[in-house]
Amino acid sequence: MKKLSNWKTPLTGLAILTLIVTLAMPVSAKTWKVAVGDAANSAQHEMGKKFAEALESKTDGKYKVNLFLNGQLGSEQDTVNDCSMGTLDFSLLAINNITPFSPTVGSLSLPYVIQSLEEAEQLTQGEVGKELAANTIRDAGVRILGWTYTGFRVLTNSKRPVKTLEDLKGLVIRVPKNAIMIDSYKAWGINPTPMAWSETFTALQQKVVDGQDNPFLTVHSMKFYEIQKYITTIRYIFSLEPLIVSEGLFQDQSKEMQAILIEAGKEATLHSAAHLRASEDAIKKDLVDKGMVIDEAADGEKEWIEKATKAVWPKYYDSIGGKDKLEKILNTLGRSI
Ligand code: MLT
Prior knowledge:
This is Tripartite ATP-independent transporter solute receptor, DctP family. By secondary structure, the protein is α/β, with parallel strands linked by helices.
């Protein structure tokens, strides 16, 4: 019977030539996609660039990532679903857009829990961060590899200076589709408008909404100064913007590659904190130079703090895993409920 193939057949001259040419060709790098919710020069972009650089250098250029800015790959909440299903590799997004999929991370965006960058670093890089990262794998099928630190979310609007809760009345404020943030504004006496981040600029521009909150760095990189005039420096949420990877993708990697991804995420995290420290004051000044007016919330923000913590914290004890979870977080920071 005629054999269909014979592995012992000696290589022909042509086959040898093909093999040599193939081996001599540069191996093309494996390239992953990273969705980035924010614009160029944002804190998320800075984080993404550092992660890309660390990954490339640790793998001698064999692994790269492409950053897709401005929500090109979908709304931030959609990217969590896509990473979870394995149709997207990585995403950089605000933590409040992960909370609907993994409610325990809401503990870090309860109003007035985190009071400084140092506290944000302490929590995210310590035991609390580890536990929340494990929970997001369990709940949402995504792994937090690193944390972007973007600063406190400040309130912006196009209508008038806001210092008191009385001033806030009557303004239409956009918030992410995040129950904790919606309830914070309700505690302050208004009904906010939940809306995807990708629709926010246009809604502000077309005056469908009067205002929104996000950190100085985001207000600047998104060019909100072109469509918003007033800023109030409330400090209710310190914005954390995790870099997440599809857990399926992570598990498909060798142990060595997994360690590289984790290391690259840590390097990018440290870089992000340094970037915030180095840039926030200059960005704030530039926003004023561009015509924005910055006000402090009246009376050390007392009324805002009291109303939000009293109404919102107890409502979320169950979803964050119990009152003792919040107690543990605050104890880590030397405070208590
Ligand atoms: C949001 O407001 O939805 C997010 O904070 C946007 C962002 O990722 O900067």
